[in-house]
Amino acid sequence: MSMHLPSPPPTIHESRLSLNRLLPRLRKSFPNDIESAEWAAFEDRLERHFPVLFDLLWRVYGPSYDFFFHVEQILRTCAEAWLARPGELKSLDATREGHATWYQSNQVVGAMAYVDLFAGDLEGLRDKVGYLKELGVTYLHLMPLFKSPAGDDDGGYAISSYREVDEALGSMDDLRQLSSELRHHGISLVLDFVFNHTSDEHEWAKRAQAGDEDYQAYYWMFPDRTEPDEYEKTLRPIFPDAHPGSFTYRTSLGKWVWTTFNNFQWDLNYRNPEVFNAMAGEMLYLANAGVEMLRMDAVPFLWKEKGTNCENLEEAHLLIQAFNSVARIAAPALVFKSEAIVAPDDIKKYVSEEECHLSYDPPLMVLLWNSLASRDCSMMLHALPKRFELPEGCSWVNYLRCHDDIGWGFEDRDLWELGINPHDHRWFLNRFFIGEHEASFSRGRLFQHNPQTGDARICGTTASLCGLEKARFEKDAHQEDFAIRRMLLLYGIIFTMGGIPLVYLGDEIGLQNDYSYENDIEKAGDERWLHRPPFDWEVAELRRDPETVEGRIFNGLLMLCRIRKNNQAFHATRTEFVDLGNRHVFGYFRVHEGQSILCLANFNDHPEEIPATRLRQLGLRKTFTDLVAGQPIVATEKLVMEPLQFMAIL
Ligand code: GLC
After folding, report:
1. Domain Glycosyl hydrolase family 13 catalytic: where (predicted)?
2. Largest CB tally within 10 Å, which of 142, 488, 517, 594?
3. Which residue is catalytic, options 297, 469, 527, 626?
4. What separation in Å is there between the alpha carbon of 383 and the centre of ligand 1?
5. Tens digit of pLDDT for each residue in 231-253?
């Protein structure tokens, strides 16, 4: 294993010399391929991307005595993967390289689902492609579908093999077929790359448990509590309910193992360059199965350093960039999406063309829920203008919720600047979304409530958090109507704000909380199952009737999808926020290629007015159309917005 010492970065000249030294050795390992056009293409890629990869690896692993050995191993991994890459994917590489920022297009619409809950298995999913197309989906994120321990496996995030599909869902061949079929229908397959940890049943973990020291060095293991205690002085617990610290004692090993999440998820030790190489191999294997986009799971935790909180460290960024440059060499179509549920400023540090092209936008998500509860947009208007912009060539993935909880990840400074106490405000939101506040319409539940700090997060489906469950229970048609409006208001923003909109499948037909997890021994205690209901295909049939709740939500989303796809202004470039002088109404201009659209969202339960003078100040001078309602708007008159109305004004 290498020692980590700071070292000066190599020069281009040095990286060139290294490649010149490594290439002949590499060629010798592939005697049957080096005359082929494939190999020539590979060397061409190396020429272009090796200097970056070399620089990154040097900065992480540089001074170790066996550094060049490891670089050579990594290049072999790349060469093997490139040679094994199917022709269909190489064509995709060429297309994507010619259109590198395709994911910024307004044509892209995302959806996510668990394979079993949505369609039973991978074969069943192929039958549902028609439904996805009906909804306009072009990006499908399937939750982890690989082999994992029986029982609690953290919803699949404890992976026992990156090369074997969970038997209950199908096989690797099914996955390859599915990815290819999806591609032919214009849908990109997105899977997780769970690369911070493996399950304790992964082959590497099993070998480590059998006493193999080489594999023990794949993980973080300590003979006693001395070092874990040192580290824990500055770590924060992630799942305090289930697992208070970050280490687990394994009697079979007689050692403490680093387990940031659950005790069956062992953190990989990236100080060991072999781990990087092994995981690069797994990543390219997934890419060669047809995965077009990787959701880079739990990125902040990759690197550990005593005396820090072991989150967002510089080396974590360098490692992701190194994975990215491995992809440029051996699977160029592959795009990364970062999953960093950390402070807003830290989230953005993962987003660049060199690191992750895309990122979830948790700050936007929580600001939207905040405005829905408070009926007030001041926080959005204060925070977003300084936080929403991303580097060139990158894009947000905008969502209302995913399979995880909603944590109130505001930047505290933003709240203080508005005179709001962040601690008290978070508690207000928690109470609101579990239905304890008098003005609440929500039916959510607390997750990971820490009575000592008062911290907690929220679980619940979009429909239940927006008031549909309560309204139906109380048989209140007016509130039911408002719940639907709330959902379409939030989705209206998600579809137009700039970035890929991501629909949690089931939201489009208003699926409510599923309380059955309480009676399932493998799920009870993890409230996130509350918002992971099985997809109900019978209920989905109701979407065809526009009078039903399901029909209203589904058709509303369909309309938003069409508006997005038909207007280039919704390309993921500029978003200009506007202060409408009304704290209930949120507004922004989307501008691209000469088209400009003003989006307005009234978060209040009452009508709101925008004076004609304000419209004129915004440059609206004649007659416009609200694309959502299909209604004309005359800029010389005041604009009256209905309660919870979303408008896209062209
Ligand atoms: C990510 C996943 C979450 C999982 C964790 C550990 O945050 O979204 O569901 O528990 O990683 O893999």
Report:
1. 112-548
2. 142
3. 297
4. 26
5. 999 998 888 777 788 999 999 89
